[in-house]
Inverse folding.
């Protein structure tokens, strides 16, 4: 007995398959064309959706003296993702805006804006996006999420701002009191005796000295308050406005449809002859 030539059989099978493809070339071509047409029609029928995006600055918290950065919720970009995807947040935004919770769960996304490098101590800008419909509610949901994020990361800085405002009010009140005292000294000074004048001038000098100290403290508190409001505090940089976007990528849908049609056409060309033989045997 001779050993069968497996290579010859493989070459024969490949040749038969190639011949079948050549003979039925119109089937892959028709499948490619039909798949592309169907993919295009599907992309047209997919409708459109809306996307709204708000940009948030998380703030850069500093030490009470304002000369050193500190770590907090605002310095961690992951904080935004955790807040906006929390179930409690989704339910609150849904109740406030009318967007269904399922739409929010599927449509919320966050992304750090390019150019902000957290590793270098620079707190990033974070874009909060919501995709869905209708447009007015989608924009309202994105803005609501941005407000929730700002509120969630602003605890330390808000307390700091309140403390500085109270300190400024106290310093200003003390300065007003010193000014009133100095005015009273000026009023009684001409009518006083020499001994009383010395006492009044001494008291006035001490009041002036105290006023300078308080004035310096007031200036420093105002500078720290400005720093806290403009640098440390989180805020919404740009509010969301809905923008129409395609629900499906038309190009991707067309390519996928054409590819599937081509595969089906190739299979049809390869299985054409076996299917015809089976049909004939069944008929016989």
């Amino acid at each position: 007995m001779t050993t069968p030539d497996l290579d010859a059989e493989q070459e024969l099978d490949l040749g038969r398959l190639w011949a079948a493809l050549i003979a039925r070339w119109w089937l892959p071509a028709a499948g490619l064309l039909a798949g592309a047409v169907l993919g295009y029609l599907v992309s047209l029928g997919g409708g459109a959706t809306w996307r709204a995006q708000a940009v948030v600055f998380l703030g850069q918290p500093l030490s009470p003296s304002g000369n050193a950065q500190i770590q907090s919720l605002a310095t961690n970009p992951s904080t935004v993702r955790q807040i906006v995807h929390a179930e409690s947040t989704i339910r609150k935004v849904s109740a406030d805006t009318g967007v269904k919770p399922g739409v929010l769960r599927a449509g919320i996304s966050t992304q750090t804006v390019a150019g902000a490098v957290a590793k270098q101590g620079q707190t990033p800008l974070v874009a909060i996006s919501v995709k869905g419909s209708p447009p007015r509610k989608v924009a309202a949901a994105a803005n609501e999420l941005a407000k929730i994020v700002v509120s969630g990361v602003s605890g330390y800085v808000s307390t700091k701002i309140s403390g500085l405002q109270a300190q400024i009010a106290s310093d200003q009140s003390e300065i007003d009191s010193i000014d009133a005292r100095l005015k009273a000294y000026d009023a009684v000074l001409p009518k006083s005796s020499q001994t009383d004048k010395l006492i009044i001038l001494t008291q006035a000098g001490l009041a002036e000295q105290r006023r300078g100290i308080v004035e310096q403290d007031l200036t420093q508190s105002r500078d720290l308050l400005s720093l806290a409001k403009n640098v440390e505090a989180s805020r919404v940089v740009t509010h969301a406005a809905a923008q129409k976007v395609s629900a499906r990528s038309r190009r991707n849908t067309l390519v996928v449809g054409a590819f599937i049609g081509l595969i089906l056409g190739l299979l049809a060309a390869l299985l054409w002859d076996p299917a015809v033989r089976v049909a004939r045997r069944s008929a016989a």
Summary: Residues 8-12 have pLDDT under 50 and may be disordered.
